[in-house]
């Protein structure tokens, strides 16, 4: 299995749109960190909107 990159995760998250604002959660600056383990487990640090 190939290693997933943080850039691939970020590109996928860019398709996740906020329901009230026509921006992705990435473009809104809600994502603070993306960590990928050797087993391709993904941990995302983000803040939530109200």
Automatic annotation (TrEMBL):
InterPro entries documented for this protein: Fe-S_Maturation_MIP18 (IPR052339), FSCA_dom_sf (IPR034904), MIP18-like (IPR002744)
Transmembrane intervals: none
Gene3D superfamilies noted in UniProt: Fe-S cluster assembly (FSCA) (3.30.300.130)
Domain MIP18 family-like: 7-50
UniProt name for this protein: MIP18 family-like domain-containing protein
Upper taxonomic lineage: unclassified sequences, metagenomes, ecological metagenomes
